[in-house]
Every structure is written in C-alpha cells, then in structure tokens.
Design a protein that fits this description.
This protein is an alpha/beta fold and 409 residues long. It has three domains: 214 residues, Rossmann fold (3-Layer(aba) Sandwich), CATH 3.40.50; 74 residues, Rossmann fold (3-Layer(aba) Sandwich), CATH 3.40.50.1100; 85 residues, 2-Layer Sandwich (Alpha-Beta Plaits). It is built from 18 helices and 14 strands. α8 packs across α9 and α9 runs parallel beside α11. 43% of the residues are buried.
C-alpha cells in the first residue's frame, strides 16, 4: 500500500509543479543549536496561500475535472486553498464560512478566487456552517471538498512528504507536525509508513486525536478552544484516524495555547518568520521532545502563516502570562489618604503597572482595584506578593481564572 500510495503522490506532486514551486525545506541554525540536533523547517507557510491546504484542494479538483461546481466549508486556510484552485481550474466554488469569520480571512479568500467563487456566510459555529455546506452540495449536485476527511485531500496533503524526501535526499529520522482534522498527518504517515518516527502535536483546547486514541474511535469534543484555529477541530476525521492509529500514543503531544504564543513571538523576533498559532505547534513541541531527537535529522512542518497582526497584542499578552512575567490582581485598596502611595512603594524597580482600574468606587472602607503588573523575571512576583502581605494589602491573583479573565481582562 505504501509503495503504491507513494507513486500516486509523486504523480500528483509533478502536476502540482504547474501551479507552484515546492515550499522550502530550510535548516534552522538557531533551533539546531538550541536542541543539539539538525532541525529542518518545511515552510508550508510560504505556499501561494500561506498554508498546505492548497494541496488537498488542488488534488480534489484535479481528480474531478468533469465537475464544474465545488463546495467547501471553512473559516480560513481550506477556503483559501479551494478559492485558489477554483481559479486555476476555471471552475465555480461556493465557499461557506461561519458568520463569525474575521473580515481579513474573507477578503483573502475573495482575492484568491475572484469571480470564480461565491462566499456564503452561514451559522455562528463551524459545525453549523459545515452542515449547511453539505446540504447545499447534495441539492446542487456539487462536489463537496472536505477539509480533511477525504481520500483525495489526504493524497494531496501527502505531497508535503514527497517534497521532503526529494529535498532532503532521504527519509528523515523524525517528523513533527500538528494535527487538527488529520488531513496532513494522515497523508504523511501513509506516505512514509513505519520508516520514520512521528510526533503529532495538538493544542490543549482541541485534542481530538488524543480523545480518539483513548476511545479507540473518533469522539466529538464537547468544547474546543479556537485560538489555534488551524488545528482546532472537535472531531478528527474517521479516514484520518484509521491511518493515524499506528502512531505511538506516547508521541502525541498537547500544548497549552498560551505556550504556543511564546514560540510565535520567538520565531518572529529571532527569525523574522510569521506563523499562525497552528503553524507554530511543531516548533513549540521541541521543548517536550528534546531528549528524543538529539543527533537526529528532524523535520518540523510549519503548516501556516495566515496571521492577522491585529492579534499580536493578544499573542504577546498570552505569552507573558504563560512565562509568568505578567499578572492580574484584584487588590482591596483601603479608602484612606496615602493608601495608593503605600501600594506603589511595594513595587520594585523592574515592576510596571500596565493596568489600573477601580471596580468598586463607592465602597466606604475598601475599594476593589484591577491591577495588571509586568516584570522581567517570573520569580520577582514572589517577592512582590511577600511585600504586599507585609504591608497588609489583601489581593487575589486572577491571571489564570478563565471566567474572571473573560469579564475583566
């Protein structure tokens, strides 16, 4: 099966060269020194649509050239891949997007597809949008291109593996890649089989592969965190899971969303590489697998770079909170002259107030104040808290309180 699949994928890869050049495979000196191994980045963030999704869309349309109407549901990268391919093949595509999709993603999808696409805004959530797209497809006899649970899509995404093999000149020792619905990972696992070691990476808030492994079948998560939207899928595809079951469960890694932000900022500041949250997952996971990859040839797939820079303040905020250098407190401030000065005197030279807001201004004896504080080393907060307690200030650290943070921060 693997040999036959490889030959099919190599044929698709050749046809794909008419549309775009192979995405670069770049050895990263910074990461290689940091982890004492050879780290290569497969830069899918540099495809024409800044993600690997163009590959599956291209292969689906290539195989169904007789169809003149295609349908998909997506809030981002898959939509852009389908839009680009529809223009190339001169066919019509109806793209369903949730009503909550940011305007930037809608604009980019229109840019790639032009007059060949029609965008339909449907539902507040992706599942609602997907249901409407599939129903539309059946009623209009239009071919539905799944974002991941489709053999043609899987075959198309596997062209990433064919390029890696050709560019490196051999099968790598280790491949690290994110998993959402499983289109890319199942394609690469099908291509290389057992010839390499895989590490599959999920965001904590959407660990659908981990759930499937535990249940021995795909399971729908009751709730997901959409921050790493390129890998945030409530239920892994059934075809995809069937191909991923052979991966050692110990090699499935989940990563907190806030930690991903630290890597996004590092790659931007050190390497000048712009990655979306899902695109940074493979690099971030190096922190977890460093002991297993030393002196190996390691490929990290950076799956996407469709990042809206309006989100940069949020990414910085999340990174600082994860690193422990920024905290939010609710402080009970005594309503007496000099109380504010006393509080300010507890701050050290490296501690800055980034937010100060009275929550209860009418209290007679005490007022509740929301305070954001930033410092340069996490351990300095222990000293600050000790000084606050010595001065008799009553405070509550709400940095990691999700409910309060949603309302106050």
């Amino acid at each position: 099966m693997t040999k036959r699949f490889r030959n099919l994928v190599k044929d698709v890869t050749l046809e794909m060269r008419e549309v775009f050049a192979p995405t670069p495979l770049q050895r990263n000196e910074h990461l290689s020194k940091l982890y004492e191994t050879n780290i290569w980045l497969k830069r899918e963030d540099l495809s024409p649509v800044r993600s690997y999704k163009i590959r599956g869309a291209f292969n689906s349309m290539r195989k169904f050239r007789n169809h003149k109407h295609f349908v998909c549901a997506s809030a981002g990268n898959h939509a852009q891949g389908v839009a680009f391919a529809s223009k190339y093949f001169d066919v019509k595509a109806t793209i369903f997007m949730p009503k909550t999709t940011p305007q930037q993603k809608i604009t980019k999808t229109k840019l790639f597809g032009g007059s060949h696409i029609e965008i339909v805004m449907a539902g507040d959530y992706f599942d609602d949008c997907l249901a409407e797209a599939m129903n539309f497809s059946k009623n209009r006899d239009a071919y539905f291109i799944s974002p991941f649970d489709d053999e043609n899509v899987i075959e198309g995404q596997a062209t990433v593996a064919a390029e890696i093999e050709a560019q490196l000149g051999r099968v790598p020792d280790v491949i690290i890649m994110p998993v959402g619905g499983g289109g890319l990972s199942s394609g690469i696992v099908s291509y290389f089989g057992t010839e390499t070691t895989y590490f599959l990476v999920e965001p904590d808030g959407a660990a659908s592969l981990s759930a499937a492994m535990s249940a021995a079948k795909p399971m729908k998560l009751e709730k997901i965190d959409n921050f790493a939207d390129g890998a945030s899928v409530a239920k892994i595809g059934s075809r995809n899971f069937a191909k991923l079951k052979m991966v050692d469960p110990k090699n499935i890694i989940t990563i907190p969303e806030n930690r991903i932000c630290t890597t996004m900022l590092d790659m931007l500041n050190i390497e000048g590489i712009v990655l979306e949250p899902a695109g940074a997952l493979s690099i971030d996971s190096l922190k977890d697998v460093s002991n297993s990859i030393r002196d190996k040839e390691v490929i990290c797939i950076t799956t996407g770079g469709n990042f809206d820079f309006e989100r940069l303040p949020e990414v910085k905020e999340r990174a600082q909170q994860y690193s422990g250098i920024k905290k939010y407190l609710i402080l009970k401030m005594p309503q007496r002259p000099g109380a504010l000065k006393d509080f300010l005197n507890t701050l050290g030279p490296d501690e800055d107030i980034t937010r100060f807001e009275y929550l209860k201004k009418s209290a007679r004896n005490f007022g509740s104040v929301l305070i954001g504080i930033e410092t340069n080393k996490a351990e300095k907060f222990e000293l600050l808290f000790s000084r606050l307690e010595t001065m008799g200030f009553n405070y509550t650290d709400i940095t990691n309180d999700e409910i309060l943070s949603q309302f106050l921060i």
